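Standup notes, structure subgroup. Blocker cleared on the adenosine-5'-diphosphate input:
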Amino acid sequence: MIASEAAPFAKTGGLGDVLGALPAAMSRAGWDATVVLPRYRGNTAGREIDRFPLRVGGYSTEIGIFEAPLADGARALFVDDPRMFDREFIYGEGTGDYPDSPLRFAVLARAALEHAVRGNIPVTVVHAHDWQGGLVPVYLKTLYSGHPVLSRAGVVFTIHNLAYQGWVDPDWLPRLDLPWHLYSIDQLEFYGRISLLKGGIVNAGMVTTVSPQYAREIQTPSGGVGFDGILRSRGDRLVGILNGIDAVEWDPMADRFLPAPYSADDVSGKRVAKKALLERYGLASDDAAMERPLIGMVTRMVDQKGLNLIEQLAGELPWLDAGFAVLGTGESRYQDMWRDLASQHPWKIGVRIGFDEGLAHLIEAGSDLFLMPSLFEPCGLNQMYSLRYGTVPLVRRVGGLADTVTNFDPSRSDSTGFVFDDFTPWALIGTLRWALDTYRDKDAWHRLQVNGMRQDLSWDRSAREYVKIYESAVSRGTP
Ligand code: ADP
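Run returned:
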Protein backbone atom coordinates (compact mmCIF):
# COMPACT_ATOMS: atom_id res chain seq x y z
CA MET A 1 0.00 0.00 0.00
CA ILE A 2 1.24 3.45 -0.85
CA ALA A 3 -0.35 6.50 0.77
CA SER A 4 0.41 9.94 2.15
CA GLU A 5 -0.87 9.14 5.66
CA ALA A 6 -1.03 6.21 8.07
CA ALA A 7 -1.90 6.54 11.74
CA PRO A 8 -0.22 6.83 14.17
CA PHE A 9 2.69 8.20 12.09
CA ALA A 10 0.74 10.76 10.06
CA LYS A 11 -2.97 11.52 10.13
CA THR A 12 -5.14 14.41 9.09
CA GLY A 13 -8.37 12.46 8.59
CA GLY A 14 -10.05 9.20 7.63
CA LEU A 15 -7.30 8.28 5.15
CA GLY A 16 -4.80 8.05 8.03
CA ASP A 17 -7.19 5.89 10.04
CA VAL A 18 -7.66 3.46 7.16
CA LEU A 19 -3.95 3.08 6.45
CA GLY A 20 -3.32 2.75 10.17
CA ALA A 21 -5.63 -0.26 10.42
CA LEU A 22 -5.89 -1.97 7.03
CA PRO A 23 -2.31 -3.35 6.78
CA ALA A 24 -2.67 -5.26 10.05
CA ALA A 25 -6.15 -6.46 9.08
CA MET A 26 -4.83 -7.71 5.71
CA SER A 27 -2.05 -9.42 7.58
CA ARG A 28 -4.59 -11.19 9.78
CA ALA A 29 -6.36 -12.20 6.56
CA GLY A 30 -3.19 -13.99 5.44
CA TRP A 31 -1.47 -11.33 3.32
CA ASP A 32 2.04 -10.02 3.78
CA ALA A 33 1.13 -6.34 4.00
CA THR A 34 3.43 -3.32 3.83
CA VAL A 35 2.37 0.33 3.85
CA VAL A 36 4.76 2.92 2.42
CA LEU A 37 4.43 6.58 3.40
CA PRO A 38 6.68 9.63 3.61
CA ARG A 39 8.97 10.04 6.59
CA TYR A 40 7.55 13.35 7.77
CA ARG A 41 9.14 15.61 10.35
CA GLY A 42 9.10 14.22 13.87
CA ASN A 43 8.81 10.55 12.85
CA THR A 44 11.72 8.78 14.52
CA ALA A 45 10.25 5.27 14.24
CA GLY A 46 12.00 2.44 12.50
CA ARG A 47 15.51 1.68 11.26
CA GLU A 48 17.12 2.30 7.92
CA ILE A 49 17.04 -0.73 5.61
CA ASP A 50 17.83 0.75 2.20
CA ARG A 51 19.44 3.84 0.62
CA PHE A 52 19.67 4.72 -3.07
CA PRO A 53 19.84 7.64 -5.48
CA LEU A 54 16.63 8.66 -7.25
CA ARG A 55 15.89 11.04 -10.11
CA VAL A 56 12.41 12.34 -10.87
CA GLY A 57 12.38 14.76 -13.80
CA GLY A 58 15.15 17.22 -13.05
CA TYR A 59 15.14 16.47 -9.34
CA SER A 60 18.02 14.34 -8.01
CA THR A 61 18.00 13.06 -4.49
CA GLU A 62 19.04 10.26 -2.21
CA ILE A 63 16.31 8.17 -0.63
CA GLY A 64 16.47 6.37 2.68
CA ILE A 65 13.92 3.66 3.46
CA PHE A 66 13.11 3.11 7.13
CA GLU A 67 11.18 0.11 8.37
CA ALA A 68 8.99 -0.24 11.46
CA PRO A 69 6.88 -3.22 12.52
CA LEU A 70 3.09 -2.86 12.78
CA ALA A 71 0.59 -5.06 14.58
CA ASP A 72 0.01 -8.66 13.47
CA GLY A 73 3.13 -8.92 11.33
CA ALA A 74 2.40 -6.03 8.96
CA ARG A 75 5.07 -3.37 8.47
CA ALA A 76 5.47 0.28 7.61
CA LEU A 77 8.16 1.73 5.36
CA PHE A 78 8.99 5.43 5.52
CA VAL A 79 10.48 7.20 2.53
CA ASP A 80 13.13 9.57 3.79
CA ASP A 81 13.89 12.59 1.63
CA PRO A 82 14.30 15.57 3.96
CA ARG A 83 13.98 18.18 1.20
CA MET A 84 10.57 16.79 0.33
CA PHE A 85 9.16 15.60 3.64
CA ASP A 86 10.97 17.22 6.56
CA ARG A 87 8.60 20.19 6.63
CA GLU A 88 6.35 21.84 9.16
CA PHE A 89 3.12 20.44 7.66
CA ILE A 90 2.11 17.22 5.96
CA TYR A 91 0.50 18.89 2.94
CA GLY A 92 1.04 22.62 3.29
CA GLU A 93 -0.02 25.61 5.30
CA GLY A 94 -3.73 26.12 6.00
CA THR A 95 -5.87 24.20 3.54
CA GLY A 96 -3.50 24.59 0.59
CA ASP A 97 -0.85 22.18 -0.67
CA TYR A 98 2.85 22.96 -1.04
CA PRO A 99 3.45 24.11 -4.64
CA ASP A 100 5.78 21.16 -5.29
CA SER A 101 3.21 18.58 -4.09
CA PRO A 102 3.18 16.68 -7.41
CA LEU A 103 6.92 16.14 -7.07
CA ARG A 104 6.66 15.18 -3.40
CA PHE A 105 4.18 12.42 -4.12
CA ALA A 106 6.00 11.37 -7.29
CA VAL A 107 9.05 10.84 -5.08
CA LEU A 108 6.95 8.76 -2.69
CA ALA A 109 5.62 6.58 -5.52
CA ARG A 110 8.96 6.14 -7.26
CA ALA A 111 10.88 5.46 -4.07
CA ALA A 112 8.37 2.80 -3.03
CA LEU A 113 8.49 1.06 -6.42
CA GLU A 114 12.28 1.36 -6.73
CA HIS A 115 12.73 -0.18 -3.30
CA ALA A 116 10.60 -3.14 -4.38
CA VAL A 117 12.65 -3.49 -7.59
CA ARG A 118 15.98 -3.26 -5.78
CA GLY A 119 14.98 -5.89 -3.23
CA ASN A 120 13.36 -8.21 -5.79
CA ILE A 121 10.29 -8.09 -3.60
CA PRO A 122 7.64 -10.35 -5.18
CA VAL A 123 4.81 -7.83 -5.06
CA THR A 124 1.42 -9.39 -5.82
CA VAL A 125 -0.71 -6.27 -5.44
CA VAL A 126 0.07 -2.56 -5.35
CA HIS A 127 -2.68 -0.61 -3.59
CA ALA A 128 -2.49 3.18 -3.89
CA HIS A 129 -4.69 5.74 -2.17
CA ASP A 130 -6.20 9.12 -3.06
CA TRP A 131 -4.68 11.67 -5.43
CA GLN A 132 -1.34 11.55 -3.64
CA GLY A 133 -1.12 7.89 -4.69
CA GLY A 134 -2.55 8.56 -8.15
CA LEU A 135 0.83 8.45 -9.89
CA VAL A 136 1.50 4.89 -8.71
CA PRO A 137 -0.77 3.18 -11.28
CA VAL A 138 0.54 5.63 -13.91
CA TYR A 139 4.18 4.75 -13.26
CA LEU A 140 3.37 1.05 -13.23
CA LYS A 141 1.81 1.50 -16.66
CA THR A 142 4.71 3.51 -18.08
CA LEU A 143 8.13 3.28 -16.42
CA TYR A 144 7.65 -0.24 -15.03
CA SER A 145 5.57 -1.77 -17.83
CA GLY A 146 8.39 -4.13 -18.80
CA HIS A 147 9.41 -5.08 -15.28
CA PRO A 148 9.29 -8.85 -14.66
CA VAL A 149 7.53 -8.56 -11.28
CA LEU A 150 5.86 -5.16 -11.03
CA SER A 151 4.26 -5.30 -14.47
CA ARG A 152 2.33 -8.38 -13.38
CA ALA A 153 1.18 -7.03 -10.01
CA GLY A 154 -2.53 -6.37 -9.48
CA VAL A 155 -3.19 -2.65 -9.13
CA VAL A 156 -5.86 -1.28 -6.79
CA PHE A 157 -6.69 2.36 -6.31
CA THR A 158 -8.88 3.64 -3.48
CA ILE A 159 -10.75 6.96 -3.42
CA HIS A 160 -11.25 8.19 0.13
CA ASN A 161 -12.67 11.56 -0.85
CA LEU A 162 -13.43 12.46 -4.45
CA ALA A 163 -13.42 16.17 -3.61
CA TYR A 164 -9.60 16.19 -3.66
CA GLN A 165 -8.55 15.62 -7.25
CA GLY A 166 -4.86 16.52 -7.39
CA TRP A 167 -4.92 19.22 -10.07
CA VAL A 168 -1.64 20.24 -11.67
CA ASP A 169 -0.63 22.12 -14.79
CA PRO A 170 0.28 20.03 -17.84
CA ASP A 171 3.86 21.30 -17.82
CA TRP A 172 4.38 19.07 -14.81
CA LEU A 173 4.34 15.97 -17.05
CA PRO A 174 8.06 16.06 -17.99
CA ARG A 175 8.97 17.06 -14.45
CA LEU A 176 7.32 13.81 -13.29
CA ASP A 177 9.03 11.69 -16.00
CA LEU A 178 5.72 11.24 -17.80
CA PRO A 179 5.28 11.24 -21.59
CA TRP A 180 3.15 13.88 -23.28
CA HIS A 181 0.77 11.34 -24.72
CA LEU A 182 -0.72 11.03 -21.23
CA TYR A 183 -2.12 14.51 -21.79
CA SER A 184 -5.24 13.03 -23.36
CA ILE A 185 -8.87 12.70 -22.38
CA ASP A 186 -8.66 8.97 -21.69
CA GLN A 187 -5.60 9.50 -19.50
CA LEU A 188 -4.71 12.38 -17.14
CA GLU A 189 -6.11 15.40 -18.98
CA PHE A 190 -9.17 17.07 -17.51
CA TYR A 191 -10.42 20.41 -18.86
CA GLY A 192 -6.97 21.58 -19.87
CA ARG A 193 -5.21 20.45 -16.73
CA ILE A 194 -3.85 17.23 -15.28
CA SER A 195 -5.58 15.33 -12.48
CA LEU A 196 -3.43 12.88 -10.56
CA LEU A 197 -6.59 11.34 -9.10
CA LYS A 198 -7.76 10.60 -12.63
CA GLY A 199 -4.40 8.98 -13.31
CA GLY A 200 -5.06 6.54 -10.49
CA ILE A 201 -8.64 5.84 -11.51
CA VAL A 202 -8.04 5.13 -15.20
CA ASN A 203 -4.88 3.04 -14.80
CA ALA A 204 -5.83 0.77 -11.89
CA GLY A 205 -7.10 -2.76 -12.31
CA MET A 206 -9.71 -2.27 -9.59
CA VAL A 207 -10.97 0.98 -8.09
CA THR A 208 -12.53 1.08 -4.66
CA THR A 209 -14.09 3.69 -2.48
CA VAL A 210 -15.02 3.64 1.17
CA SER A 211 -18.72 2.72 1.10
CA PRO A 212 -21.08 1.05 -1.39
CA GLN A 213 -23.46 4.02 -1.41
CA TYR A 214 -20.63 6.50 -2.08
CA ALA A 215 -19.53 4.23 -4.94
CA ARG A 216 -22.99 4.71 -6.47
CA GLU A 217 -23.23 8.45 -5.74
CA ILE A 218 -19.91 9.34 -7.35
CA GLN A 219 -21.14 7.85 -10.63
CA THR A 220 -23.96 10.43 -10.79
CA PRO A 221 -23.71 14.06 -11.94
CA SER A 222 -24.78 15.36 -8.53
CA GLY A 223 -22.22 13.32 -6.58
CA GLY A 224 -19.42 12.97 -9.09
CA VAL A 225 -17.71 16.37 -8.66
CA GLY A 226 -17.05 16.32 -12.42
CA PHE A 227 -15.70 12.76 -12.33
CA ASP A 228 -18.98 10.86 -12.75
CA GLY A 229 -18.38 10.09 -16.43
CA ILE A 230 -14.88 8.80 -15.76
CA LEU A 231 -16.15 6.69 -12.88
CA ARG A 232 -19.08 5.32 -14.87
CA SER A 233 -16.61 4.26 -17.55
CA ARG A 234 -14.88 2.18 -14.88
CA GLY A 235 -18.15 1.09 -13.29
CA ASP A 236 -17.54 -2.63 -13.78
CA ARG A 237 -14.36 -2.33 -11.72
CA LEU A 238 -15.55 0.14 -9.08
CA VAL A 239 -16.53 -1.29 -5.69
CA GLY A 240 -17.44 0.31 -2.36
CA ILE A 241 -16.00 -1.26 0.80
CA LEU A 242 -16.97 0.19 4.15
CA ASN A 243 -14.15 1.18 6.45
CA GLY A 244 -13.94 -0.54 9.78
CA ILE A 245 -13.27 1.09 13.11
CA ASP A 246 -10.38 0.55 15.47
CA ALA A 247 -12.09 -1.82 17.86
CA VAL A 248 -9.32 -1.56 20.46
CA GLU A 249 -9.24 2.23 20.57
CA TRP A 250 -13.05 2.46 20.43
CA ASP A 251 -14.30 -0.12 22.90
CA PRO A 252 -16.74 0.97 25.62
CA MET A 253 -15.59 -2.00 27.73
CA ALA A 254 -11.98 -0.76 27.80
CA ASP A 255 -11.87 2.93 26.99
CA ARG A 256 -9.32 4.84 29.03
CA PHE A 257 -11.26 8.06 28.56
CA LEU A 258 -14.48 6.76 30.19
CA PRO A 259 -15.31 6.77 33.90
CA ALA A 260 -16.90 3.28 33.77
CA PRO A 261 -16.93 0.41 31.27
CA TYR A 262 -20.14 -0.83 29.68
CA SER A 263 -21.41 -3.18 26.99
CA ALA A 264 -24.58 -4.22 25.19
CA ASP A 265 -25.32 -6.60 28.09
CA ASP A 266 -25.13 -3.86 30.69
CA VAL A 267 -25.30 -0.26 29.55
CA SER A 268 -25.42 1.25 33.06
CA GLY A 269 -21.87 2.62 32.67
CA LYS A 270 -23.24 4.87 29.94
CA ARG A 271 -25.14 6.93 32.51
CA VAL A 272 -21.92 7.46 34.40
CA ALA A 273 -20.37 8.78 31.21
CA LYS A 274 -23.37 11.07 30.62
CA LYS A 275 -23.01 12.56 34.08
CA ALA A 276 -19.27 13.07 33.56
CA LEU A 277 -19.88 14.66 30.18
CA LEU A 278 -22.48 17.10 31.54
CA GLU A 279 -20.08 18.05 34.33
CA ARG A 280 -17.13 18.39 31.95
CA TYR A 281 -19.10 20.97 29.98
CA GLY A 282 -20.44 22.69 33.09
CA LEU A 283 -24.00 21.87 32.03
CA ALA A 284 -26.81 21.13 34.48
CA SER A 285 -26.39 17.54 35.71
CA ASP A 286 -29.29 17.16 38.14
CA ASP A 287 -31.94 14.46 37.75
CA ALA A 288 -33.90 16.52 35.22
CA ALA A 289 -30.78 17.00 33.08
CA MET A 290 -29.94 13.31 33.32
CA GLU A 291 -33.44 12.45 32.05
CA ARG A 292 -33.24 14.94 29.19
CA PRO A 293 -31.74 13.52 25.98
CA LEU A 294 -28.21 14.73 25.29
CA ILE A 295 -27.21 15.27 21.67
CA GLY A 296 -23.52 14.88 20.79
CA MET A 297 -21.53 16.17 17.85
CA VAL A 298 -17.82 15.75 17.05
CA THR A 299 -17.05 17.23 13.70
CA ARG A 300 -15.08 19.40 11.38
CA MET A 301 -17.27 22.51 11.30
CA VAL A 302 -17.58 22.78 7.53
CA ASP A 303 -20.36 22.66 4.94
CA GLN A 304 -19.67 18.99 4.16
CA LYS A 305 -20.79 18.06 7.65
CA GLY A 306 -24.13 19.87 7.36
CA LEU A 307 -23.20 22.79 9.57
CA ASN A 308 -25.22 25.19 7.43
CA LEU A 309 -28.37 23.17 8.12
CA ILE A 310 -27.68 23.57 11.79
CA GLU A 311 -27.03 27.27 11.31
CA GLN A 312 -30.50 27.63 9.83
CA LEU A 313 -31.93 25.93 12.92
CA ALA A 314 -29.91 27.91 15.44
CA GLY A 315 -33.04 29.71 16.66
CA GLU A 316 -34.92 26.47 17.28
CA LEU A 317 -32.39 24.05 18.75
CA PRO A 318 -32.30 25.66 22.22
CA TRP A 319 -36.07 25.15 22.59
CA LEU A 320 -35.92 21.41 22.05
CA ASP A 321 -36.17 19.30 25.17
CA ALA A 322 -32.51 18.29 24.79
CA GLY A 323 -28.99 19.27 25.75
CA PHE A 324 -26.02 19.54 23.41
CA ALA A 325 -22.37 18.52 23.78
CA VAL A 326 -20.42 19.78 20.78
CA LEU A 327 -16.73 19.46 19.87
CA GLY A 328 -15.03 20.61 16.69
CA THR A 329 -13.02 23.12 14.74
CA GLY A 330 -13.53 24.63 11.35
CA GLU A 331 -14.98 27.70 9.71
CA SER A 332 -15.14 30.64 12.07
CA ARG A 333 -18.77 31.41 11.27
CA TYR A 334 -19.80 27.97 12.53
CA GLN A 335 -17.52 28.14 15.54
CA ASP A 336 -19.01 31.52 16.44
CA MET A 337 -22.54 30.22 16.00
CA TRP A 338 -21.95 27.40 18.47
CA ARG A 339 -20.12 29.68 20.90
CA ASP A 340 -23.05 32.12 20.84
CA LEU A 341 -25.57 29.35 21.43
CA ALA A 342 -23.54 28.06 24.38
CA SER A 343 -23.20 31.48 25.97
CA GLN A 344 -26.94 32.11 25.64
CA HIS A 345 -27.93 28.69 27.03
CA PRO A 346 -25.08 27.71 29.35
CA TRP A 347 -27.06 25.02 31.20
CA LYS A 348 -28.14 23.15 28.09
CA ILE A 349 -25.59 23.74 25.36
CA GLY A 350 -21.91 22.94 25.81
CA VAL A 351 -19.35 23.71 23.11
CA ARG A 352 -15.58 23.16 22.86
CA ILE A 353 -13.73 24.55 19.89
CA GLY A 354 -10.59 22.48 19.42
CA PHE A 355 -9.30 18.96 18.81
CA ASP A 356 -9.58 16.70 21.85
CA GLU A 357 -9.34 12.93 21.47
CA GLY A 358 -10.40 12.16 25.05
CA LEU A 359 -13.41 14.45 24.93
CA ALA A 360 -14.44 12.91 21.60
CA HIS A 361 -14.57 9.51 23.35
CA LEU A 362 -16.55 10.91 26.27
CA ILE A 363 -19.07 12.53 23.89
CA GLU A 364 -19.51 9.27 22.00
CA ALA A 365 -20.20 7.48 25.29
CA GLY A 366 -22.10 10.11 27.27
CA SER A 367 -24.51 11.33 24.59
CA ASP A 368 -27.87 9.70 23.88
CA LEU A 369 -28.10 10.80 20.28
CA PHE A 370 -25.30 11.62 17.82
CA LEU A 371 -25.92 14.13 15.05
CA MET A 372 -24.35 13.77 11.57
CA PRO A 373 -26.43 15.65 8.96
CA SER A 374 -23.72 15.54 6.27
CA LEU A 375 -24.09 16.95 2.77
CA PHE A 376 -21.85 14.12 1.56
CA GLU A 377 -19.95 11.47 3.47
CA PRO A 378 -17.65 8.96 1.76
CA CYS A 379 -17.79 6.64 4.78
CA GLY A 380 -17.82 8.50 8.10
CA LEU A 381 -16.40 7.12 11.30
CA ASN A 382 -18.27 8.92 14.05
CA GLN A 383 -21.60 7.27 13.30
CA MET A 384 -19.86 3.90 13.62
CA TYR A 385 -18.28 4.88 16.93
CA SER A 386 -21.76 5.97 18.03
CA LEU A 387 -23.26 2.61 17.10
CA ARG A 388 -20.58 0.82 19.06
CA TYR A 389 -21.13 3.07 22.08
CA GLY A 390 -24.92 2.71 22.19
CA THR A 391 -25.37 6.32 21.13
CA VAL A 392 -28.15 6.40 18.57
CA PRO A 393 -26.99 8.13 15.37
CA LEU A 394 -29.19 10.60 13.50
CA VAL A 395 -27.79 10.92 9.99
CA ARG A 396 -28.65 11.96 6.47
CA ARG A 397 -29.14 9.15 3.97
CA VAL A 398 -25.90 9.74 2.08
CA GLY A 399 -22.67 7.81 1.44
CA GLY A 400 -21.44 5.62 4.25
CA LEU A 401 -24.08 7.01 6.60
CA ALA A 402 -26.77 5.36 4.47
CA ASP A 403 -24.86 2.07 4.55
CA THR A 404 -24.28 1.95 8.31
CA VAL A 405 -27.46 3.33 9.91
CA THR A 406 -30.91 1.71 9.53
CA ASN A 407 -33.82 4.06 10.03
CA PHE A 408 -36.08 3.48 13.04
CA ASP A 409 -39.15 1.45 12.26
CA PRO A 410 -41.16 0.27 15.27
CA SER A 411 -42.27 -2.81 13.34
CA ARG A 412 -38.73 -3.95 12.60
CA SER A 413 -36.17 -5.46 14.92
CA ASP A 414 -33.01 -4.30 13.17
CA SER A 415 -33.26 -0.47 13.34
CA THR A 416 -30.18 1.31 14.62
CA GLY A 417 -30.87 5.04 14.27
CA PHE A 418 -32.69 7.85 12.52
CA VAL A 419 -32.21 8.75 8.87
CA PHE A 420 -33.50 11.71 6.89
CA ASP A 421 -33.29 12.31 3.15
CA ASP A 422 -33.63 15.92 2.06
CA PHE A 423 -30.76 18.27 2.76
CA THR A 424 -33.10 20.84 4.35
CA PRO A 425 -33.42 22.22 7.88
CA TRP A 426 -37.05 21.01 7.99
CA ALA A 427 -36.13 17.43 7.27
CA LEU A 428 -33.43 17.57 9.93
CA ILE A 429 -35.55 19.16 12.66
CA GLY A 430 -38.52 16.92 11.89
CA THR A 431 -36.38 13.82 12.30
CA LEU A 432 -34.74 15.24 15.40
CA ARG A 433 -38.16 15.78 17.01
CA TRP A 434 -39.16 12.23 16.10
CA ALA A 435 -35.97 10.89 17.67
CA LEU A 436 -36.51 12.91 20.86
CA ASP A 437 -40.09 11.59 21.11
CA THR A 438 -38.86 8.04 20.61
CA TYR A 439 -36.32 8.55 23.39
CA ARG A 440 -39.20 8.57 25.88
CA ASP A 441 -40.07 5.00 24.87
CA LYS A 442 -37.33 3.36 26.93
CA ASP A 443 -37.79 -0.11 25.43
CA ALA A 444 -37.67 1.08 21.84
CA TRP A 445 -34.59 3.18 22.61
CA HIS A 446 -32.83 0.32 24.33
CA ARG A 447 -33.46 -1.90 21.30
CA LEU A 448 -31.95 0.75 19.02
CA GLN A 449 -28.90 0.93 21.24
CA VAL A 450 -28.34 -2.79 21.48
CA ASN A 451 -28.87 -3.33 17.73
CA GLY A 452 -26.17 -0.78 17.03
CA MET A 453 -23.77 -2.18 19.59
CA ARG A 454 -24.05 -5.66 18.06
CA GLN A 455 -23.10 -4.59 14.49
CA ASP A 456 -19.88 -5.98 13.04
CA LEU A 457 -17.91 -2.82 12.29
CA SER A 458 -14.52 -4.49 12.41
CA TRP A 459 -11.61 -4.09 10.04
CA ASP A 460 -11.59 -7.85 9.64
CA ARG A 461 -14.93 -7.61 7.86
CA SER A 462 -13.50 -4.91 5.54
CA ALA A 463 -10.30 -6.92 4.98
CA ARG A 464 -12.32 -9.90 3.74
CA GLU A 465 -13.79 -7.59 1.07
CA TYR A 466 -10.37 -6.23 0.13
CA VAL A 467 -9.06 -9.77 -0.30
CA LYS A 468 -11.70 -10.29 -3.02
CA ILE A 469 -10.69 -7.04 -4.69
CA TYR A 470 -7.00 -7.95 -4.58
CA GLU A 471 -7.77 -11.31 -6.16
CA SER A 472 -9.82 -9.63 -8.90
CA ALA A 473 -7.05 -7.11 -9.53
CA VAL A 474 -4.57 -9.94 -10.03
CA SER A 475 -6.84 -12.03 -12.25
CA ARG A 476 -8.25 -9.18 -14.36
CA GLY A 477 -5.06 -7.16 -14.79
CA THR A 478 -4.94 -3.46 -15.65
CA PRO A 479 -6.79 -1.80 -18.55
P1 ADP B 1 -13.75 13.26 8.30
O1 ADP B 1 -12.59 12.34 8.05
O2 ADP B 1 -14.50 13.67 7.07
O3 ADP B 1 -13.42 14.43 9.18
P2 ADP B 1 -14.88 11.03 9.81
O4 ADP B 1 -16.14 10.87 10.59
O5 ADP B 1 -14.59 10.00 8.76
O6 ADP B 1 -14.86 12.48 9.17
O7 ADP B 1 -13.62 11.03 10.79
C1 ADP B 1 -13.39 12.06 11.68
C2 ADP B 1 -12.41 11.57 12.72
O8 ADP B 1 -11.79 12.69 13.36
C3 ADP B 1 -13.07 10.79 13.82
O9 ADP B 1 -12.13 9.88 14.34
C4 ADP B 1 -13.42 11.91 14.84
O10 ADP B 1 -13.62 11.43 16.13
C5 ADP B 1 -12.21 12.77 14.72
N1 ADP B 1 -12.46 14.19 15.05
C6 ADP B 1 -12.97 15.13 14.24
N2 ADP B 1 -12.97 16.34 14.87
C7 ADP B 1 -12.45 16.14 16.10
C8 ADP B 1 -12.18 16.98 17.23
N3 ADP B 1 -12.45 18.27 17.20
N4 ADP B 1 -11.61 16.43 18.32
C9 ADP B 1 -11.33 15.11 18.35
N5 ADP B 1 -11.55 14.26 17.33
C10 ADP B 1 -12.10 14.76 16.21
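Discussed briefly. The chain has two domains: 14-244+460-476, 268-457.
Next: hand off to the docking folks.
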